[in-house]
Amino acid sequence: MSTGVVTAARVTHESGTVDQLATASPDSQETAVTELLTVPDIEEAYVLSTCNRVEAYVVGADHAVGRAALEEFFAATDDEAVVITGHDESLRHLLRVATGLESVILGEDQIIGQVRTAYEDARAAGGIGSMLEAAVTKAIHVGERARTETAINEGVVSLGSAATRRAAAELPLDGATALVVGAGEMGRLAARNLAASGIDELVVANRTVAHADHLVGDLEVEVDTRVVPLEALETVVTSAEVVVTATGSDEPVLGPRHLDAESDRDAGEGETEQVIVDLGQPRDVAPAAGTLPAVQVFDLDDLESVTAETREQRADAAREVEAMIDREYDLLTEQYKRARADEAIAAMYESAERIKDREVETALSHLEGEVTEGQREVVESMADALVNQLLAPPTKSLREAAAEDDWSTIHTALQLFNPEFDGDDGPLAPPSVVTANADPGLGATDDD
């Protein structure tokens, strides 16, 4: 078990704007982990990057090392948008993220898959060691429990469904034509919800047409569908009353030039003829598109009214999940404590084993005549029994010391039994004990 501490930093839909999120987003999760691991004294790293959050977790010798690495990682992002947390709060936050308590849509299902994918990416980059292995797998476990044992994900469960609700609040969807731009996971969720809302036709535009074909083939509701390449966007967007964009493009894919024909519509003053919901991060829709007559553009920040309603409906389930997180967090910290105690116990047994082997060989060399295999086994068995009986009480004491946060005892044991242990490296303890009063570092904190 690593003796380091976890430090985390994040930019989310709560702390930053859509544009600040875009600035913080790495090219990929795997390359971001690789970058963090190049920082001296960073032992492990995990990065979760979605349309609503960019979070980085590192394990270092202390929080100063972690803060320095994360400050550099988020250097291009405004400090006020960055939240940095110490060990305890970082672990609790990761559990909350996986359960959906930190999502725009409370309890949404998509995040658990994103946490898993980020875990695989971090493993591929060599970023997952003993500390983050325990933390991330615990987060996945509690996320699955929350969805199977509570009602946290009933009702509106994704940004795709929130986008449909937002559009339906502005104009009737019955008989409408809807356009989904992007055939990724978010586009699939939006298409599925729109298809179930009573629309007449669904058009999917995507850079790779085969992916769009696969998306419409998986729809659970029968509706007229059409697939077009992204280059043909301008030819279909003007005929759609509802447009939902969800691409991974670095630049806007939809702008005023695509919507110029909207000026030909006979909309009355203040009347909405077309609703565009931009789920892209960074933005899929150029801000100037929202200035056109009869066009309303909503982005991720504008879905708050839908998400607030969902939060109210799921308040009871959220309390159940909070209690579940408390229990699972306690189990995680106990797991860390056992690992630290086991480290001292292993060092003690290894030291005893070295002494035992040396003394057995000395004893056998003093016996007259040739020592038989049977005699050797008798002597070794006696030595093993002595070691086990002598070490049983200190083994129990070390485990009790860890449970009671008596880290000076474990520190002393490691100094006595582990020749490579450096007592000058600082106190040996789970990070929750060592860093209880640590300075959280740059940007905002959860206590602000």
UniProtKB/TrEMBL annotation:
Basic and acidic residues bias spans: 257-268
> Mind telling me which residues the site (Important for activity) is annotated on?
93
GO terms of molecular function: glutamyl-tRNA reductase activity; NADP binding
Instruction: Report domain Tetrapyrrole biosynthesis glutamyl-tRNA reductase dimerisation positions.
Output: 320-418
Where the record annotates domain Glutamyl-tRNA reductase N-terminal, the positions are 12-150
Pathway of action: Porphyrin-containing compound metabolism; protoporphyrin-IX biosynthesis; 5-aminolevulinate from L-glutamyl-tRNA(Glu): step 1/2
| Domain of life the protein comes from | Archaea
The domain section of the record reads: Possesses an unusual extended V-shaped dimeric structure with each monomer consisting of three distinct domains arranged along a curved 'spinal' alpha-helix. The N-terminal catalytic domain specifically recognizes the glutamate moiety of the substrate. The second domain is the NADPH-binding domain, and the third C-terminal domain is responsible for dimerization.
Q: This protein is called what?
A: Glutamyl-tRNA reductase
Protein source organism: Natrinema pallidum DSM 3751
- State which gene encodes it: hemA
